[in-house]
Specification:
Blueprint (H helix, E strand, L loop, with lengths): L17 E3 L2 E6 L5 E3 H14 L3 E4 L5 E6 L4 H10 L7 H6 L2 E3 L12 H14 L12 E4 L13 E5 L5 E5 L5 E5 L4 H18 L7 H8 L3 H5 L5 E2 L14 E5 L2 E7 L4 E3 H13 L1 E7 L4 E6 L2 H13 L13 E3 L17 H9 L9 E4 L11 E8 L2 E8 L7 E4 L1 H14 L3
Parallel strand pairs: 6-7, 7-8, 17-18, 18-19
Antiparallel strand pairs: 1-2, 2-5, 3-15, 4-5, 4-14, 8-9, 9-10, 10-11, 12-13, 13-16, 15-16, 19-20, 20-21
């Protein structure tokens, strides 16, 4: 009898490396979206000399180094510390989970999300109460700039709110928010985080995230415990689309080249090449994104186009039309010990069909090695869940949903995708 996957409830870190099928997985800790070309180049060097040369850009906009060994981890941590990408200690690493607008401080926004992220990190690391936050508890800061983070899941969201100052939303309550002035933003967000800890303790519960607390106790329990009031908030930003992320782009006075690696998996030489381009053609600055893309900031669009041309030579993703964007796949076996089978062996065969059935966000197919669905929590037009006998096919759902078909062979999967592609208007 096949048992379910183990839910670890934490992300890999430098102080808490996660064992995987190809060695230890560690994270270079970024607070906010900014990455210098020197940091990117050194991460590539660390991955090459201390790991297996592979780097994953996660959906939390963090760089993860793969294949680190017990004999090289001390050196890797020392070098991450030297470039400012190591948290002060294990407690700080665990609670400092902050994602910020990719163009913060560059494109117009209601506030500087990167500056606020740095202040938030200091407060999170200072307050002993907050060390009890679950390791995946995530803060999100969206300054209202050009690249919206509307589709990124987070426990506490700090968002620009047009004429109403700043809105603080909590997961599971999409239509209400706490409205605050800029000066009171961090105080209110941290009060909500402390209230979450207190409610967990009071109810002797293991609420992993705010959403599960809301489902159990209702929408008002958390803000009431924090001494805050939520009001109606119907404002909803359109999420960023890949057409606004990849390739040579201009957002007002800001130009950048959006470049990605298939499934967010970078080789050390690719990341080093991008760092070199940021130095030679750009401003020396890159931005991390939750779309598994790096934005290379440039002085003008012509420089961005030159970077795109050079990135094409490395077979990186530089266009929203790239078929590889239609497929999201976790590492699968043997890299992930939770995975039942490989997930990436046939993705290039599946990508053309996946592109024909994409949803509004440009994803048509999600391949998951187990029912956790780590690579994508939201629904996809088709999700393939690896099983010992083949693939289970789920329609318009996630990896934890009931499948329509079980134990399909790869050939049967191709037929089912072809049928669905034929139904879509061209």
């Amino acid at each position: 009898m096949q048992t379910g996957p183990e839910i670890k409830g934490w992300c890999p870190g430098a102080f808490a490396p996660m064992p995987s099928g190809d060695g230890l997985l560690i994270r270079a800790k970024a607070v906010g979206s900014r990455l210098t070309e020197a940091q990117a180049r050194e991460i590539a060097c660390i991955a090459d000399s201390c790991g297996n040369g592979l780097i994953d850009l996660s959906q939390r906009a963090q760089l993860q180094l793969r294949g680190i060994s017990e004999s090289t981890i001390a050196q890797a941590l020392q070098r991450l510390d030297a470039i400012g990408m190591l948290a002060p200690n294990v407690d700080a690493e665990r609670v400092t989970n902050v994602i910020a607008s990719p163009l913060a401080g560059l494109a117009p926004g209601a506030f500087d999300a990167n500056a606020m992220a740095a202040e938030l990190a200091i407060e999170l690391q200072r307050d002993a109460t907050l060390r009890a936050l679950p390791p995946k508890f995530l803060f999100l800061l969206d300054d209202g700039g050009p690249l919206s983070l509307a589709e990124v899941e987070a426990d506490i969201r700090i968002e620009a709110a047009a004429k109403r100052g700043i809105a603080i939303r909590i997961a599971g309550v999409p239509d209400r928010a706490v409205f605050v002035a800029a000066s009171g933003t961090l105080d209110a967000a941290l009060r909500l985080a402390r209230a979450f800890v207190e409610l967990r303790d009071h109810h002797a519960s293991s609420f992993r995230r705010v959403r599960t607390l809301v489902e159990a106790l209702g929408a008002d329990a958390l803000p009431r415990s924090a001494g805050l009031v939520m009001r109606d908030c119907k404002e909803a930003r359109a999420p960023a689309r890949w057409a606004h992320v990849f390739g040579a782009q201009r957002c007002g006075a800001v130009a950048f080249a959006g470049v990605g690696a298939p499934f967010g998996r970078w080789r050390a030489d690719e990341l080093a090449a991008v760092a070199d381009l940021a130095a030679s053609e750009g401003t020396g600055e890159l931005r991390l994104t939750p779309w598994r893309a790096l934005l290379i900031v440039t002085r003008n669009e012509a420089a961005a186009r030159r970077i795109v041309s050079r990135a094409d030579d490395h077979d990186l993703i530089t266009s929203a039309d790239d078929q590889r964007l239609a497929v999201i796949a976790c590492p699968g076996a043997p890299e992930c010990p939770q995975a039942v089978a490989e997930t990436r062996a046939h993705v290039m065969d599946l990508a053309p069909l996946a592109q024909k059935i994409v949803g509004a966000d440009g994803v048509g197919l999600h391949l998951s090695g187990c029912a956790k669905g780590c690579a994508r929590q939201s629904a996809s037009p088709v999700t393939l869940l690896a099983s010992a006998e083949g693939f289970d096919l789920i329609e318009n759902g996630g990896a934890d949903c009931a499948p329509r078909f079980r134990s399909l062979s790869f050939e049967a999967v191709m037929r089912e995708l072809s049928v669905r592609a034929a139904r879509r208007p061209q």
